[in-house]
Amino acid sequence: MPTDGLTPAQRQAVTHAGGPLLVLGGPGTGKTRALIARFQWLVDEGAPPESVLALTFSTPAADALRVRIEDAIDRPYEELSVCTVHGLCARLLRDEAAEARLDPFAQPVTPADRLAMLLERIDELTLRRHDLRGNPAALLAGVIDRIDRLKEELVTAEEYAAWAAEASRSGQEREFAGLYRAHDRMLAERGALDFGDLLLTAHRLLRDNARVRARAAERHAHLLVDEYQDLNLAQVETVGLLARGSATAVFAADPEQSILRFRGAAFKNVEALDAPTVRLERSFRCHRRILDAAGAKVDGESGGDVAFWRANNERAQAQAVAADIERRIVREGLRPDEVAVLVRSVRNEGQEVAVALEERAVPFRLVGAAAFFQRAEIRDVLAWLRLLSDPGDAGAVVRALARPPVELRSVDLARCIQISRRRKLDMVSALVAATESPQLPPESRERILHFLRLHKAGAGQLDTVRPDLFVQRLIERLGLRRQQLFAAQADVVERLVNLAKLSELATQYVRRSPQATAREFARYIAAVAEAGLREEEASVAGAAPGVQVMAMHTAKGREFEAVYVLGLQSARMPGARRRTFEPIPDALLHEELPAESRAAHVAEMRRLLHVAMTRARSRLVLAYPERSEAGAIMQPSPFVEEARTAVGGTWEQREEELFGPAESLHAAARALRGEVLDAVSAVGGRLGELRLDTDLDVSHAIVRYLELLKLGALIQRPAGQSVEETLPAINARLGQGLSAEQREVFESSTLDDFLLGADSDDRRRASALAARSEPSLEAFLPRRGAGLVLSASDVDTYLTCPLKYKFARVFRIPQEPTVNQRFGILVHQVLERYHAVGGESKTLAELLGLLEAGWRRGGFGDSDEERQLRAKAIEALTRYHERFQSEPADPVWLERAFAFRLGDHLVRGRVDRVDRLPDGGYELIDYKTGRPKSAAQLKSDVQLSLYAVGAREAWQLDAAQQAYYYVLDDAKVPVERSSEDRDWVTDTVLEVADGIMGQGFEPTPSYAACSVCDYRIVCPAAER
Ligand code: SF4
Fold first, then answer.
1. Closest-CA residue to 647 (of 620, 625, 612)
2. Residues in CB range of 95: below 8 A, 6 or more apart
3. Are 33 and 283 in contact (CB under 8 A)?
4. E-strand spans in 783-833?
5. Which of 127, 622, 814, 898 is the most buried (most CB within 10 A)?
6. Could you tell me the distance, in angstroms and rounded to a whole number, from the CA of residue 1009 to the centre of ligand 1?
7. CA 752, CA 757: separation in Å to the nearest integer?
8. CA of 804, closest atom in ligand 1
């Protein structure tokens, strides 16, 4: 029963009978759970699953919600509507392209795309009154941000321009009006919509077109909205239009957690909603003490641990967090993915935490906006792209030298930098000079030569090779992908997926700018990374289980066993209000909002911290550094002081660890250098005094100096030798010329104990790291509940070669689609659109017009191969049209989806076309653009048989016939199937699922499979 285990208030929300309902509840009170249970209840009561629309605030939240709802629903269905408001608008505009007068092939563009567009055409923009500060990418990213804000508040470019034209407006506002218009004009020229346009257009369509509104209402009788408090005006209005047509609408909200609403209008949405209200009063997530610290107004289970840390500085703060997490993982068995470290900015404090966690070999991942560009492997490739396009980029060269595959020792790195400075050479030229230097050991010289070889190969192709190929070759040349491919660790998989994503970004860039060089791509991607843009395409599905380091606002909707919230000094929490120019002038607002004020800013920051604190189930640490980088004393946030008072907590001091992991020798040398200098002046000053202990002071000073030498020798010891192995020989050497007194001081020093202890810690960590093999790829399997989610193509891929399945679906290495694959997709899309608007009434010119529009959008070029394909497509579509007109068929569904449970597994698919036959039966048709196969060759084909099972399960439709339609050859090949065949198909799916669950990924190479496999370049089995 969906209502089992729910509180009476939740049950009331779940079984609400009609009209709108508002569900209010604090953190962890089960609002989302109530929405999921309501979805299930509606389905159990007879509502088709497709008739329930569930909306939430972000794509990851929508993905998580969909998985939970899919788990809860047992009944087969076509396709669940669980998405963001943007996602809903995109679908609505696709379905209603004709009514919206939109190009049916239009794709929404991301902020990164728009930044690239503005950067490419910056000469057409007037930027006299905007301060570029030498960084146009950052300024244009700010412009894009402001345009997004305006669109969210339903302010169009025209409205803005009319307002800015008034006499009292500033020149900067007028200039911005021009930028807004130019931005929209450039998008329109490309036939593209940004996310704001999606909302504005869908809202206008729903508002002004009764037919569209009626169709939307018919499709979605029930509406569920999560995190309603954070919807912006355009979203609220759009959802409102949908809700008016639906039979029931349930909105879940918590104004105390509103952190996204413009001008901190936290209560606006909730207050404006005229609906009966249910209140959820008990938190199932946070323990009492955490709720008290966060000032939450709900009840919770007693207990919970809240600590307050005052760290010496940011590094000490990060080290303390890493040490505490390591201890809890080792001693208490806490899972790393049960821990979150929340910071204001992943780009800043997040890096410090990442370094500290890495030092302790604690698995972690940086999450959230721009985190993709902070990933080590992505920074490695970016460093190479930057240094290849600008050899003077010393930062990039240093990173490339320090990281694999070069890994130059830091002391040699320092020498090379010195050569560059002294001889005033760029870093690459300095490296050439360094190879002549007698100071460099042969091994280091070899490493530099390796770097120079890589540099030469890359630089030679920078202006000649296509950006996407260049990036792929660079990744291969650096060995970033190949060396790791067979390791099973989850973080390795994530690294591979990230690298593949970077290649994909290059491919998309090529589609937009087919003539661009790799050098231009390098500049573009560096600008996007620099501007810190959220790269929607860069978010990677599937992630290694590890401690999550994320920005506070990204943690919304998540929960963890232990949460560390850092950077809570008053200068940042609440900190000063950022005074850029007003994002939306009052006169342009279409709603009444609180005025911008310091108090509103403070309240918003308070809610942000409230959200961060209430992500914790049982342990919460609130920390701040008491000294800034410049050494200034900082005060704790007043909110944290309030929390401390609320739970009677005390500040705990956290020091920087000088002998921290991986840094012990360098840190010790740094500390000792200071001591030696102090001793020189102190002891030197006393030499003239008649004191008995002067000789002893001198001995101490000499020994300190010798210890400094000892550290120098240890730092430069041969690679692979431990401190323990090296120390005796160094001590013997240094001890040779000592007096008896000096020897006594030397031998009684505790430095060796420190060093040996740190060395053994390092080794322990290294072996822990090596032993941290996670042979299981469990976290990466496409799970749904106890089983898997599978499609016909998944089954087919696994049957072809299990290793291919692993590359494609477990590692999820996206491959650049070949021209033929893109062509196939285009032909599918054209045929779908042809039939969607009544193929029988369409002329051939209209069909070819669709091809023309899709061809332009698909980024096809003018190569011989592409020209041939186009000619083939025109010929094939002409024949298709003629056949369709002369032998009318009755297509009743296009691209119809199905999903059903098979054992524990969820099987999904989408049928290209379903025709009604003259005798009333149905035929399932799948389009193909490859060479036709004979009926005999299709004997063991799984796809259509699985579709037939899907049609029966999800649509209660027994298909009389199934056929492949080879469009280019105008050949329809029927596939006969008996009921035994259907049993065979379900058995096959279950066997494949067992194989995947058991992680059986042994390759089955064959000429037929490998010759068309996208992964042969990385597959060792293909080398045999
Ligand atoms: S190249 Fe061959 S063996 Fe390797 S994954 Fe592809 S199909 Fe399997």
1. 620
2. none
3. no
4. 783-784, 787-791
5. 622
6. 7
7. 8
8. 5
550 backbone dihedrals φ, ψ, rounded to 5°: -145, 160
Nearest protein Cα to ligand 1, atom 2: 1010
Q: Which residues of 115-131 are buried (b: 16+ CB within 10 A; e: fewer)?
A: bbbbbeeeeebeeeebe
Q: Is 318 exposed, middle or buried (0-12, 13-18, 19+ CB in 10 A)?
A: buried
Q: How many CB atoms lie within 10 A of CB 578?
A: 6
Round to whole Å and give the CA distance between 368 and 538. 10
Rounded distance, CA 229 to CA 267, Å?
7
Backbone angles phi, psi at 498, to 5 degrees: -65, -40
Give the whole-angstrom CA distance, residue 628 versus residue 623.
14
41 within 8 A of 49, measured Cβ to Cβ: no
Task: Determine contact, residues 266/258, Cβ cutoff 8 Å.
Answer: yes
pLDDT for 774: 45
H or E stretch covering 923 = strand 922-928
Q: Which of 972, 842, 908, 875 is nearest to 104 (CA)?
A: 842
Take atom 7 of ligand 1 and give the residue whose Cα is closest. Answer: 1010
Task: Say which amino acid occupies 645.
Answer: T
d(CA 299, CA 317): 31
Pairing of strands 961-966, 922-928: parallel
Q: Are 416 and 546 in contact (CB under 8 A)?
A: no
How is residue 19 annotated by DSSP? E
d(CA 1021, CA 1024): 6
The residue-averaged pLDDT of 463-478 equals 86
Contacts for 243 with CB less than 8 Å, ≥ 6 apart: 20, 223, 249
φ and ψ of 417, to 5 deg: -65, -40
Residue 938 dihedral angles phi and psi, to the nearest 5°? -90, 10
Q: Which pLDDT score, from 0 to 100, does residue 852 have?
A: 87
Taken in order 251, 256, 259, 261, the sign of the CA dihedral is positive
Atom of ligand 1 nearest to the CA of 801: 8
Residue entry with tokens 């809890």 = 328
What's the longest Cα–Cα distance across the chain?
Answer: 120
Q: Tell me if 913 sits within 8 A of 894, measured CB to CB.
A: yes
Q: Which residues line ligand 1 (CB under 6 A)?
A: 801, 803-804, 807, 1003, 1005, 1009-1010, 1013, 1015-1016, 1019, 1021-1022
Q: Is the whole-model pTM more than 0.90?
A: no
> Structure tokens of 881?
């049209």
Instruction: Identify the three-state secondary structure at position 281.
Output: coil
Closest ligand 1 atom, residue 803 Cα: 5
| Angle separating helix axes 694-715 and 664-686, nearest 10 degrees | 160
pLDDT per residue as tens digits for the range 296-355: 888 889 999 999 999 999 989 999 999 899 888 877 888 998 999 999 888 778 888 988
**Angstrom distance (rounded) from CA 475 to CA 52:** 45
Q: Among 588, 593, 13, which Cα is nearest to 272's?
A: 593
Average pLDDT over residues 259-271: 77
Of all residues in the chain, the percent with pLDDT exceeding 90 is 39
544: its two tokens: 């290694």
Residue range 38-94, pLDDT digits in tens: 999 999 999 999 999 999 988 888 988 999 999 999 899 999 999 999 999 999 998
Distance CA 485, CA 504 (A): 18
Among 798, 1007, 1014, 1019, which is best to mutate for testing ligand 1, by the most ligand atoms less than 8 A from CB?
1019
Asked if residue 689 has pLDDT above 80, the reply is no
Best of 803, 1006, 1011, 1017 for a ligand 1 pocket test (most atoms within 8 Å of beta carbon): 803
Radius of gyration of the chain (CA): 32
* 896, 910 Cβ separation under 8 angstroms: yes
Comparing 284 with 532, the larger pLDDT belongs to 284
Asked if pLDDT for residue 540 goes beyond 50, the answer is no
* CA–CA gap between residue 89 and residue 202 (Å, rounded): 6
Give me the amino acid identity at 32.
Answer: T
